[in-house]
């Protein structure tokens, strides 16, 4: 073959090779600006954690990570925005897993909860505290059950809403302990807390957080149990629901980072590695644990498996208890 022909053939071959490599190379490019959609209002625990994580990721990646709050429908609005965003790495979401594992069992989801979203990394779990108010003299979990059995329906249990995680915990306890406890659903955390401090009901289930510490120390709220894999460092004497014999009710709010389903796997792996790196940093871990949130981390595959298992479990609970959305 003449030399010029060889050169042309080689150039063509190299061109084809480069073209075949371009998608993979492009997939590794982190955008100059990343939008982190948070499915909850500004100022809450989820928003505070998301902003701390955004700052850490921005520093690690050398890019701007902009937090956008798109609250509503218990996180579903934010996750829908993530599902419908371009899968180019420019949009991620921070949310509890409930829009994927609980909400779809109660109402039609605007996106496919198992195929429209790609789990990137687990970030933290937020424990659920069971607290007694001044409306009852209950001092421990055993006496709560005794009171509920002695006065069927008289014990009132407030949650953040119908079909919320606190409601799921209650339904699991109702079934396992065979007790009749009245559910009092709220639609706002502020009113729920005001009524708890005013003794408007006997029991409150709420995500752990620093705002509860002064009320617990003052004795206005008394911790009976916690939904968490292990006892909290801030409340070492408070047993988990699993320790008390109710493992099915021992639930937590798991939070993580998500991406549009079609995002290239090489980008998901990159973001997963950077999120795990951020969670290993002492300053971010301290911020999470100061609010009783527990850092998690791990692979994207393990996070996806956990979501799939929780989806199936919540479906069984919702159907068994006949839970309906508001």
Number of DSSP helices? 11
Query: How large, in whole angstroms, is the Cα Rg?
Result: 23 Å
Quaternary: single chain
Percent in strands: 15-25%
**Helix and strand sequence:** HEHEHEHEEHEHEHEHEEHHEH
Give the helix/strand class: alpha/beta
Count of beta strands: 11
CA(first)-CA(last) distance: 77 Å
In short:
The chain is built from eleven helices and eleven strands.
What is the strand and helix layout of this fold?
Elements (H helix, E strand, L loop, with lengths): L2 H25 L5 E6 L6 H17 L2 E6 L6 H8 L7 E6 L1 H4 L15 E10 L1 E5 L8 H10 L5 E4 L5 H13 L4 E4 L3 H9 L5 E5 L5 H5 L4 E6 L25 E8 L4 H15 L2 H9 L3 E2 L4 H22 L5
Overview of the molecule:
This protein is of the alpha/beta class. Helix content is 42%, strand content 19%. It has eleven helices and eleven strands. A six-stranded mixed beta sheet has the order 2-1-3-10-4-11, sandwiched between helices. Strands 7-6-8-5-9 form a five-stranded mixed beta sheet, with helices on one face. β6, α6 and β7 form a beta-alpha-beta unit. α2 packs across α9. It starts with a helix and ends in a 5-residue tail after the last helix. About 7% of the residues have low confidence.
List keywords for this structure.
326 residues; 6-stranded mixed β-sheet; 5-stranded mixed β-sheet; 11 strands; 42% helix; 19% strand
